[in-house]
Amino acid sequence: MGSSAFASPPFRKYLGGTLSANIGFRMQSVALAILVYRTTGSALDLGLVSAIGAAPAMLCNVLGGVLADRHDTRLIWAINAGVSTMVVGALALLVFVGDVPISQIYTLAALMGIVAGVNVPVSQSYYPSLLAPHALKSGVTLNGMGMSVASIIGPTLAGLIIATIDLYAAFAAAAICWSLPAFIAFSLPTRKTKPGQNTRSLSDFRVGFDFIRTHRLFLILIGLVVANFLLVFGWLQTLPAFIELFAGGEREIGYAFTAAGIGATLGIFLAGRLKPGARLGYQILGGTAFFASMITCLSFAPSFYLLLPLAFLAHAGNGIFSNSCIVAMQSRIPEAIRGRVMGAVSIAFNLGTFGGMWTGGIIALLGDVRWGMAAGPLGMLVIILLVLVTQRQIRQLADTD
User: Fold this and answer.
1) Mean pLDDT across the stretch 342-370?
2) Contacts of 151 (CB under 8 A, 6+ apart)
3) Is the dihedral of CA 259, 350, 50, 385 positive or negative?
4) d(Cα 359, Cα 232) in Å, to the nearest integer?
5) Helix 9-40 × helix 43-70 angle, to 10°
6) Is 276 exposed, middle or buried (0-12, 13-18, 19+ CB in 10 A)?
7) 67-92: per-residue pLDDT in tens?
8) Considering only CA atoms, which of 383, 356, 343, 400 is closest in space to residue 76?
9) What is the pLDDT of residues 315-339, one digit of tens each?
10) Where do runs of H (alpha helix) occur along 127-203?
């Protein structure tokens, strides 16, 4: 991976701000899942609240990409972080005052989805402008590791805070974490853009999709991302129902999220250490195949203590998959339309939040938590085999053209 990206002072500031925001996001996600399960006791509702957050997020992914290409990316980033702070802070106050009806939880989940939807393409389009081209892979890896480190720290903090204080304190801590980027943003340089790109036409919203539609590789990679997150990742969003099988509580939920985060960090690190070469496609397919296989094993884990190493191994595979996909795409996107393309790409990642609805729905349909969790990963393994056999472009994929 090297240290070339970390040698950039603006990138280090950006990394600090986005790390804080991602810790806040992970904390609010754990706290929200526990709040929903306390309120209704339903695995299906856990999936529904994820889907309610995902729907506006996908709509706002494209908007965020257009805003990033048209306006000062730092300003959009700061405003979005400020709005997130207010929304999560409002939820902390509501929980502190008393019981929150499920209808209010759904409304706030939708608002969280809006700000998350804008945030992803804004940050994904901004940080490459802080780096020299040769440092892009290092930057992608460090940015991914920041997100996975947040998935270690955030859930652990959330679980401990909820267990020792209460839910409202976890939401309040998440709101504080979200506020940091709003202060950091204006100490960063303006994103370098090319003249003539700030048009006001509605066609701006189609640019990212047109680019993807005309590049078969992007279509294949995005299809894999959607399938991977939709079919396999949902186990995390229904975690309170699964942990209940082991008579676990908030601490155990936090530990499981943390094990997954540590594994993802290792996977991203390993993906960044691999030298550029012509086997990137096999790295992508191998990563998601390992993820699906380990989650299938995890679904039938006989004890909580076996669940933790399986979650670690599974998300190491997912870290390799995700980082490798982003490297393959970021290195092939023109700078002038990076925000709009990444906005369209972000929709694929946000579709994964419907994984909770998929998993929760299958659990409700089958009446069995374990088989409900395993159904998606088993289907993903079939998809991977089909892609391996039929898509030569993936088999021949290298780090760069």
Assistant:
1) 79
2) 22, 26, 257, 258, 260, 261, 264, 265
3) negative
4) 8
5) 150
6) exposed
7) 777 778 888 888 888 999 999 999 99
8) 343
9) 999 999 988 888 888 888 887 788 7
10) 136-164, 167-184
> What average pLDDT does this structure show over 16-25?
90
* 274 DSSP assignment: S
Q: Does residue 396 sit in helix, strand or coil?
A: coil
CA dist 4 → 12, 65, 132, 135, 196 (Å): 11, 26, 9, 6, 31
Task: Give me the residue spans of the domains in the chain.
Answer: 9-184+204-395
* CB distance 306 to 315 below 8 Å: no
Report the chain's C-alpha Rg in angstroms: 20
Dig out the tokens for 232 from the structure: 């396999």
Q: In this structure, are residues 264 and 151 in contact, taking their beta carbons and an 8 Å threshold? A: yes
CA distances for 288 relative to 182, 315, 322, 397, angstroms: 35, 9, 8, 16
Which structure tokens are listed for 184?
Answer: 């950091």
Pairwise CA distance, residues 356 & 32, whole Å:
13
Other Cβ atoms within 10 Å of 219 Cβ, number:
13
CB 118 within 8 A of CB 80: yes
| CA distance linking residue 37 with residue 29, whole number of Å | 12
Distance CA 248, CA 301 (A): 14
Q: What is the CATH number of domain 9-184+204-395?
A: 1.20.1250.20
Among 63, 148, 164, 159, smallest CA distance to 114 is for: 63
pLDDT tens digits, residue range 337-355? 887 888 778 777 777 667 7
CA distances from 303 to 46, 167, 289 (A): 23, 27, 24
pLDDT interval class at 193 (50, 70, 90): low
* DSSP assignment of 303-369: SHHHHHHHHHHHHHHHHHHHHHHHHHHHTTS-GGGHHHHHHHHHHHHHHGGGHHHHHHHHHHHHT-H
**H or E stretch including 203?**
none
